[in-house]
Amino acid sequence: MAYIFRFGKYAGSAACERCHDAVYAAWKGSMHVQMTRPIAEARVIGDFSPGAHLERYGRAYRMSQRGGRYLISVSHQG
Predict the structure, then answer these.
(1) What phi and psi, each to the nearest 5 degrees, are found at residue 18?
(2) I need a surface site. Which of 6, 30, 47, 49 has the fewest CB within 10 A?
(3) What does each C-alpha distance from 70 to 6, 15, 16, 33 come to in angstroms?
(4) Per-position DSSP letters for the chain, written without gaps between them
(5) Is the sign of the CA dihedral 73, 69, 44, 52 positive or negative?
(6) Angle at 28 between CA 35 and CA 73, to 5 degrees
């Protein structure tokens, strides 16, 4: 069965599961599931203190907090 969603409407992760059950199951069992949840539902694990950063795999990550929100900016090193 095909599902049609209107542009601009958030369908939610359950909409993906309908057609992509194996991919959905892999995503659901990973930490990536945390990335799409409101912060009140997700677990924040990491250092978001002023100046916190991490450099790995050719990328630089800067963590911060602003207005009660947790932010990560990513840039390529070099």
Answers:
(1) -55, -40
(2) 6
(3) 29, 26, 26, 16
(4) ------TT----HHHHHTT-HHHHHHHHTSGGGGGGS-TTTS---S--STT-EEEETTEEEEEEEETTEEEEEEEE--
(5) positive
(6) 15
With CA atoms as reference, report the closest residue to 13 among 37, 49, 41: 37
Please answer whether residues 70 and 45 qualify as being in contact, where contact means their C-beta atoms are separated by less than 8 angstroms: no
CA dist 35 and 44 (Å) reads 10
Q: Which amino acid is at 63?
A: M
Residue with tokens 């599961």: 17
Q: Which pTM does this prediction carry?
A: 0.45
**Chain segment 5-21, per-residue pLDDT in tens:** 555 666 777 888 888 99
